[in-house]
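Box S2. Input/output pair 1.
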Amino acid sequence: MTPSSKPAGDISSVFPSLSDKVAPPLPPRFAALKTRLIAGHEDRLLASWHELLESLEREKEIIRARGSALIPEIEYGEIDDVQKRTKFRDSLKHRGVGVVRAVVSEREALDWKELLLRYIKTNPEVKGFPADQPTVYELYWSPSQILARAHPNLLRAQAFLMSHWHTADKSALISTSHPTAYADRLRIRQPGDADFALGPHVDSGSCERWEEDGYGRGHVYDEIFKGRWQAYDPWESSCRLPVQSDLYNGAGACSMFRMFQGWLSMSETGPGEGTLKVNLLFRKAVAYLLLRPFFKPKKGVDEIERSEFLGSQNWILEPEATSLLQGAVPGSCQEFNDVLHPHLELGDTMVHVPGVMPGDYVAWHCDIIHAVDRVHAGKSDSSVMYIPCCPLTEPNARYLVKQREAFWHGAPGPDYPSGEGEGPFRGRLSPDYVMGNVSAQAQRAMGLAKFDPNFQGIPLGEREILASANTILGFE
């Protein structure tokens, strides 16, 4: 039994570049959508596009000069230090990615990896990608993953990271101080691997970013479509609450609101060793992604010098709207490349995260373009558990209801490919184990225990979402 309505598959199911899936052209309705999105703002949009291209050039020079040094880091034990916390905050808000060091001890993270390897060996029927020698395993409920999600330090680090978001709507039903658990996969990548070559992409939808029934429900990107990309605030949360990020039931397309995607390291891994790369253009790259489908070059890259091709004066609004949304495929992640998104110059702006040790936590904003090394050129495994930062909201609570059922049966969560999953696996932890062995905070994060809306010090607005979540989860 499984609550997932997704087709069977693995992580390649949402990456056309991994699955060799050739998508047909988008239907004409997308041309009509593009026309509606910018109607009445065409002149302002063109001026905004030119401003964006010039701003991108300046930002790229900074990234070329400083690279990974731009990514902020903070020790877990220092997150209450006002001076260090402020410095971290300022860089995080600008770049959208950060590293929290030593969230759990190195020994504990390595023990979790050893426990995972035993779990995999004990259950050789486990699936993954690639099928013959998995790097990303279709595992969601192993003891290591459950214990990591339940760890009090990790929950505190998640709340710390989510505290950098704000809400313009003070009545919005959201709590960043009550993280919710999202059961994701894990990666154990061996030296020399070139199969798990995830190129630059953004998760949580593709076409949905332009669609009125997708991100348009919250008007998340309206300022960009109106020619005011500088006014776009990636840290405003209330506009994200109505969003539908999976309109096509993609096998692995996330429907839960993840403020940050993240992973907990189980290995010592440096740049080039099968690790994460992020695009530090962040907010400007989001604006570029969304505006790119409205513009075309006067002359192609084969007709003129590259610098002239990229120059703002070579780019004009489409005379007639097409259905093109470069890199967007229904039911898949949004992918990027140098042909479709030339101004991003991904070879320069995709930057490695700094070297990590077991127990370090890396988190990146849900709008950030990210990728992994095409080849793992290191000498030891590059291993992580994917654990994002998810606030408590009504839609996230509804997801927890379905995920809780999946946990009970050992099935993949509702966002993931369907199947029997880990139901018959030996050594799998059960909800009963969790109820007897982890903290009440972790039980609440998993949707297994009641939130306390009467806890001292909780603001009135936060009490409302706690009470509402209890009703959704069946505790009231």
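Box S3. Input/output pair 2.
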Amino acid sequence: MPRQVDHEERRRHIAAAVWRLAAAGGLEDATIRRVAAEAGVPARQLQYYFGTREDLLLGALDLLNQHGEAEARERIAALGPAPEPRRLLRSVLLELLPLDEGRRRRHLVHAAYFVRFMADEALRDRIRDTPPELEDLVALLLPEEHRDEAEFLLAGAAGLQGQLLLGHMSAHRAVELIDRQLDRLFAPAG
């Protein structure tokens, strides 16, 4: 009897090879040939599952984001059935920081994509219209009088992410800064 192939697992396996190459040397190292070698599959298989190199890169990014969202949902679920908005928002913002090895690797890969998007207008155009779901979620969790600060909180977390990845700041200090902002935003009025 022929062996059943789990196509989604195969796509994730190939995407993980892209992630390893991107984290180690940037997306320039993620050529079809190098990804195939890293994944231990023929190059034809990459083209079968993803198409062009551009589609491979974007498909791998999509899978990375899905994986990160699933992990974030698990950590948020651990807060309990109805966490208060401040605790939930804190958890969302901490997902943007490389506080453990899994998130560190994911953020390194995202940094490689960021550099590539800055240099490649065609790739940048394909993600330009991404909906601002995270910003909308952060705004909904903020007290009504502070909803306009959602962009600032996300930009601040992104800046802290870079500082942590470079080793210029400790995780403890980054979390402390997030908590300070949340304390300010959730302080009782008056």
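Caption for Box S3: The chain has two domains: 1-78, 81-190. The two ends are 73 Å apart (CA to CA).
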